[in-house]
Target: Acyl-CoA synthase
Amino acid sequence: MEHANYGALSPLTFIERSAAVFPERTAVIHGELQRSWEQTYERVRRLASALRGRGVERGDTVAVMLANTPEMLEAHFAVPMVGAVLNALDVHQEARTIAFILQDCGARVLLTDTEFAKTIEKALALLPSPPLVIDVDDPQGGGGEGLGKLGYEALLAEGDPTFIWEPPPDEWEAIALNYTPGTTANPNGIVYHHRAAYLKAVSHVLVWGLAPHPIYLWTLPMFDCNGWCFPWTITAMAGVHVCLREARGEAVFEAIRRHRVSHLCATPAVLNALLAVSVERRPGKFDHPVKVMAGAAAPSAAVVEGIEAMGMEITHVYGLTEAGGPAAVCAWHPEWNARPREERARLKARQGVRYPMLDGLMVADPHTLVPVPKDGRTIGEIFIRGNTVMKGYFKSAQATEEAFDGGWFHTGDLAIWHPDGYMEIKDRAKDIITLDDEPSSSLEIESVLCRHPAIMEAAVVARMDEELGETPCAFVVLKPDAANVGATEIIEFCRQHMAHSMVPKTVVFGELPKTSTGKVQKFKLRAYAWRL
Model:
């Protein structure tokens, strides 16, 4: 029975509307390639039709090993159009992990960029029953051999450009499956549903105040929480997807200038890549508004200050894979603009308040779920709940039940609540350092370190000392022109800006180990510190 007052929420409706209302407007730019919304929608329907013709049915999984390319964007719509589930693989994962994921999710089809052929070939060799492999040969890519019997364009040729699709009968159906990186065990699969993807996309519109036709630069990997759901957001606004395979500092600046990019998302790795570009090679302040959504890890006040000095406006968000990306935003008050620059940066570095379509967010005692006082001092765990939270962990009812215990999703992140209702992360529970029998935040120490003019990045973990117990161990990355700065100078700087118990007792110089999305792998740093 059809209902006049109800329809399942799905972001798939966004592309149909944009193609109908703005068929001639540019949808995709990739190098010299440009396609309109009419052309993009036609290709999406061809892909959906071809997948159906190749036996993909409702509930099946289609995996993709793709960079930020038009094909990756098309898959975000075509795969769920046939009721299938999109599994976007991390292109930096090793072959064994990819093999586990393909086997675990039972992928029927794999779309893979030829640049990643060596890794995929090793992964396929570990599978008892490999999926159908479709090669994507991107002219902007790094080459590589095809592994399948069919290329992407040949697959599209099998499809019907007028393919008639229907939204899911139930908005609770899975739309995507994302795996979190495993550290000591296999990764966990996280299931997104159509309703969550739809509402998260609309939330982004509200948070950024998106006007129609934004020009969005893909510096964030589309495999990271499905690009924080921005493939659907930008499509809803009939914007322009400017594809970029690698978010290198100078390439980002060039794309912003050339295409007059209005919006982009950035992890700390991208922000640091921009700051690492020498001043003489930067384009100077842009002559048009550029908005940056910063997330994945809290940017230091120094990073916020540096990016905004280039004329870009940062919106700081906090989130996690289980929330489809951002779950909180440091919603900005115009009157804060009159505050001193350093104070503005400090305010902007806070994680903020709940996203518009998230039902609840609180900082509470992890055992009793009683909210902590909003005193800016008491530490509690961040809890969230609402329609944009994941459906659950794939094949793991027990893990899902534990994560949702008490009717809230347990994030594992520790924060304080300020009197104005804005939260500020202090650490992951496992990253707290106990100093003089008191829990201390590694993030606070890192924030001070990043204020040193010679330091580009910093991470702090606990190091065991037989006499003192846990002591802070700092790992720092110096700016290219700061080779002569030593540990003594850095420790003295910290003594001047923080409590003496928090001052690092050890400073280690070198690159920081990171995930493919730019998060520092502190478990590796802890292991190193314990060996010292």
In short: Residues 449 and 458 are 7 Å apart (CA to CA). The chain has 17 helices and 26 strands. The first helix runs from residue 12 to 21. The radius of gyration is 23 Å.
